[in-house]
Design goal:
Blueprint lengths: L4 E6 L4 H12 L6 H10 L8 E7 L3 E11 L5 H8 L6 H4 E8 L14 H7 L3 E6 L8 H13 L3 E4 L12 H10 L6 E4 L5 E4 L21 H12 L7 H16 L4 H18 L3
Parallel strand pairs: 1-3, 1-4, 4-5, 5-6
Antiparallel strand pairs: 2-3, 3-7, 7-8
Helix pairs in contact: 8-10
Length: about 280
Amino acid sequence: MLKNKIFTTSQPNKSTLQFVKDLFESSNREFPQTLIDDRLKETNDDVVGVCIPYVIENKYYRANVDFWLDEIDPAKAKETIKAYCEHDSDVSKVVDAFIFIFDKDKPETFDAVKLWTPFIEQAEPNVCIVVGTPSKTPLGGDEESAIYDWCASNSFMYVDMDEISETPMDKVGMELVLDTIETNLWDGLVKKTKDGKEMLIDENRDLGVDKDILDDSLDMPTQAEIDSMRNELFGDIDEEDGLDKAFEAIQTMREHGKNLSMEERHRMAAKVALSFAAQFDL
């Protein structure tokens, strides 16, 4: 069972579907409109249970993930979340990204994310994002500070869709969401080699990211650091269990990465990606 689902939720207002459409547009992907229209006919236009496949692909790797949508009536939120946490539910076992969308024109809708704490603790997704939709009027200073403080205290990234970057290289809005999703360590990641062959990284997930999507402002690792990482991962590759050892090392780094800041994660990811490139001549 692959942990490759992106659970996307909000109150009932079709914001989850619009969010995913905007994400497809930002990543220059064709949105599977026919697939979604057929599904909405089956559910009487209810987005609950809608599954939207998304492929993360570049010249170094490919990963198949799915957006799972659900929009929950506040009056039924506690009951619904409890059902998601039931022991016989497989949802928490496959979710590795959780995205909560709230309406900034109705700041009180943010508070619903707090009800998801039991599910987050059970699923332990590697990515947790709160998205504030574009609004007609900015949030008040105290309201915005409270949101940032809660997100920081609960290991969520807050993405304000109205934010404008003052620095060209800083990612905000949908670009930041895409960067976070595409640098995650998805189960079922397939590495590509120079000759076009693919190497499946199953439950032991690679920390690497495409060199083309690394922020140019990132403090890139030195050659000595890359060589050290390559030796740590592939020093025993010629032994009978050499590949198993490499995967075990990657898994250990992945667990360690959960406690790092985003900048530190990206730096570690860069070292792993470049060591892979050196090892397999990518």
